[in-house]
Specification:
With about 280 residues, the chain is mainly α. It has helices at about 1-20, 25-30, 35-45, 50-55, 65-85, 85-95, 110-120, 125-155, 160-165, 175-185, 190-195, 215-230, 235-260, 265-275.
Length: about 280
């Protein structure tokens, strides 16, 4: 334990400092009240986590320009944390890097990315590192597969054979038999009944019902909270920060879009704060 604390002290301390600069709920509540994109840009210039990326560039005026800078901020954070890491920690961060290239709430990376990551995890030394990586990527893989099946059945009426081609050929807490049963279900009601019997809908942190992307983020958020408590001196806080920063960027992007098109503040608030 002492060895892990020493190995991760610098990286975790740096991550903790970055996490303290994430926007709070009150910041987003303030943002939803802005009337123009320019007001939002002005607010972001004042924030420690975003002010520096403007670099005194007064020409930044449009939503597209500021969204690019906002997204670049997570790549800059990645670069800083990468420099703090040792060889194995850097290798672990490299597994996640491809996801930081996309601003979507659901990563638009190829299936081969996840299968390759899953293979690479086995090459790491140390049981704690492997457990953290499997929990992070395994949970994500399970839920991407769940969401793709759910959406395919609900919105597109896709058949099991069609859906099977879309899935990542990896399972973590979902058993192989459970995946097969989920694929074979007809309507979403039957799908949810089978899903209710899986690990994600049992125990203290069980979901009440399937809410697609909302459920995905609830599961991922709970997983990171649990993992960071169990392994505070590990890669868990780093991956948790990347996830939370991605969420922040997604919310900022949605807010900018809403403000640009004069969407009422209550609707923007409902979209990004679920309130």
């Amino acid at each position: 334990m002492a060895g892990e604390l020493l190995t991760y002290s610098g990286l975790v301390t740096k991550t903790r400092a970055m996490r303290s600069r994430l926007l709070k709920q009150e910041d987003f509540e303030r943002i939803t009240e802005f009337q123009t994109v320019e007001e939002t840009i002005g607010f972001l210039r004042e924030q420690e986590s975003y002010g520096k990326i403007y670099g005194g560039r007064e020409e930044i005026r449009h939503r597209g320009q500021v969204e690019e800078l906002i997204h670049n901020s997570i790549l800059e954070d990645y670069r800083k944390l990468y420099l703090f890491g040792n060889g194995q920690q850097r290798k672990a961060m490299e597994l996640y890097h491809a996801q930081l290239q996309y601003g979507d709430s659901v990563p638009r990376v190829e299936i081969s990315y996840f299968t390759d990551v899953w293979k690479q995890i086995g090459k790491f030394s140390g049981s704690q590192m492997k457990e953290v990586l499997r929990e992070v990527f395994g949970t994500q893989i399970d839920w991407l597969n769940i969401m793709w099946m759910y959406r395919g059945k609900r919105f597109f009426g896709q058949k099991p054979g069609e859906l099977a081609k879309m899935l990542i050929p990896v399972h973590y807490k979902l058993k192989r038999r459970e995946l097969e049963q989920l694929l074979e279900t007809g309507q979403t009601g039957e799908f949810c009944k089978v899903l209710a019997l899986t690990a994600y809908f049992k125990g203290r942190e069980a979901l009440v019902d399937m809410q697609d992307e909302v459920s995905y983020h609830r599961v991922m958020g709970n997983m990171y909270q649990r993992l960071c408590q169990k392994y505070p001196a590990s890669m868990a806080p780093v991956f948790c920060y990347f996830y939370e920063k991605e969420q922040e960027i997604e919310h900022l992007t949605a807010a900018l879009e809403g403000i640009r098109y004069q969407v009422p503040a209550r609707e923007i608030r409902k979209l990004i704060l679920n309130s």
